[in-house]
Amino acid sequence: MGKFLGGIILKLTRLVLAGAVLMTVGILTKGSPNVAQAASSKQILNWTESIELATADASKATDTLSFNVLLNTQEGLYRLDKNGTPKLALAKSANVSKDGLTYTFELRHGAKWSNGDPVVAKDFVYAWQRTLDPKTTSQDAFYLYQVKNAKAINQGKAQADTLGIKADGDYKLTVTLDKPVSYFKKLLAWPLFFPQNQKVVTQYGKDYGTKSENTVSNGPFKLTKWTGTNDSWTLVKNKDYWDQKQVKLSQINESVIKDPQTGLNLYQNHKVDETLLTGTQVPNLKTQADFVARKSSNLTYLDMNQKQVAAFKNKQVRQAISLAINRTALVKNVLQDGSTAPLGFTPVGLGTDPSNGKDFAKETVVKSAVTNNLTKAKQLLKAGYKATNTKHLDLTLTTDDTQEAKSTAEFVQNSLEKLPNVKITIKNLPKVQRLTQQKQGNYQLIITGWQSVFADPINFLDVWEANSAYNTAGWKNAKFDGYLDAAENKYANDPQKRWTALQNAEKLLLNEQATVPLYQATKAQLLNTKVKGIVYNGSGVPYDWKTTYIK
């Protein structure tokens, strides 16, 4: 996760940032008007994605794209501004107790769902209880564990009505935490914490959020024209949104374009407003006024499934896999889009040392976990073969079917096949299918990713807790879990000791080579210079279009 991961992925997944830009099929027909010109006069944004939309159900979402659609069609207590600072949204006012355990919110009167129902406090209560219900099988439920009794409810050990969220009438909401959480307001700006309309969710049951007809919105836009399987959808302005006067766009047309050259051609022919670039395209375009390089906290990495491949339980084998890969060559010669070789599992930009202001990633480097040394890799693999009674590794490498994913997979394949008796077969899948197989643990090697929800190292490290829904590779370490538990509980009010515990967890993860970090993503794009007001967040859901407009 991104989530994000699964997807980047947020998530998971790779948690891939939203990509290029396109219009609906009708606009592409012969004699159709220029989309960019239409956008200028009609406030229509044409946007493309490199992957399919997986779900419009916040309790089920795991990838960045799904959360991006949810961010723009739903709303919670807060929204993040351009600086990543939480600002009141559905909450008219907020009060936090001195001990940091109780949050009291007064909700805005007059906020409505797109079906006309009022947005009330019980909608938040229902949403959080539904996400934590074990029957919902939400992979992201653990983010709610800061709320009193949330973990016990999610594990089936407590009743839903004991959750630390209460509605006092229609417009007063009280949230009680188990412990102070410094980043809790940022979590409240993430779609997982948004309200849900119980009447609509109940009406559609298991089909809720599987197509646009089975959804309801309370945010700036409404989701339309999505069947659940098609490659295009439209967000239209929600006239029932309480702050609709601030929404300038009338609609956003989104379509899936997986070939970057197709996206570039459409952009250069003024058919689209933005396109994601590959490394081979960047050198000739990076001096243009419409070139944008967006830094992110998205990490792409290689997971080794110990449940499917017994040899991966051996640390020497895992280290050999990592040492065989030259990350610098990957980012400079293959990606070429500004992405950087990782310093560890936690990306740069997710927090600084309370004592000296140094970045977490730069303070916790374990060079052996992210460096390239083919000679050492061969030695370790031979030792690992001997220890595990393995003669060869014939492995399937699962990844997405985007051009970036394919290029990365081919690089990894070529790198690993330099090792003795290693054969790699690449399996490209649409991201939705890749996420499903990853969730099921149905892979041997998989290129995946994680996009932070908020700027704190814990948001990356907790992926590897033993009970994490995203830990599908089977690596577990009690000492690692202990460090995270101390950071979240024992040292919650001691920033320096909490920091040290997180550092210890990161170093242990890397020394054990639980995973293989590949690169920290930068997304190179061309963006129509007439498009203004996009709120971009590199450490969460990337694109907020509430205030976007065409100049």
TrEMBL record:
One annotated Gene Ontology cellular component of this protein: ATP-binding cassette (ABC) transporter complex
Pfam families: SBP_bac_5 (PF00496)
Xref: InterPro entries: Peptide/Ni-bd, SBP_5, SBP_5_CS, SBP_5_dom
SUPFAM superfamilies: Periplasmic binding protein-like II (SSF53850)
Origin superkingdom: Bacteria
Keywords: Peptide transport, Protein transport, Signal, Transport
UniProt-recorded Gene Ontology molecular function terms: peptide transmembrane transporter activity
Domain Solute-binding protein family: residue ranges: 86-469
PROSITE patterns on file: SBP_BACTERIAL_5
Membrane topology category: Lipid-anchor
A single GO BP: peptide transport
Subcellular compartments: Cell membrane
Family annotation (PANTHER family): PERIPLASMIC BINDING COMPONENT OF ABC TRANSPORTER, PERIPLASMIC OLIGOPEPTIDE-BINDING PROTEIN-RELATED
Family: Belongs to the bacterial solute-binding protein 5 family.
Protein name (Swiss-Prot/TrEMBL): ABC-type oligopeptide transport system, periplasmic component
Organism: Agrilactobacillus composti DSM 18527 = JCM 14202
Phylogenetic placement of the source organism: Bacteria, Bacillati, Bacillota, Bacilli, Lactobacillales
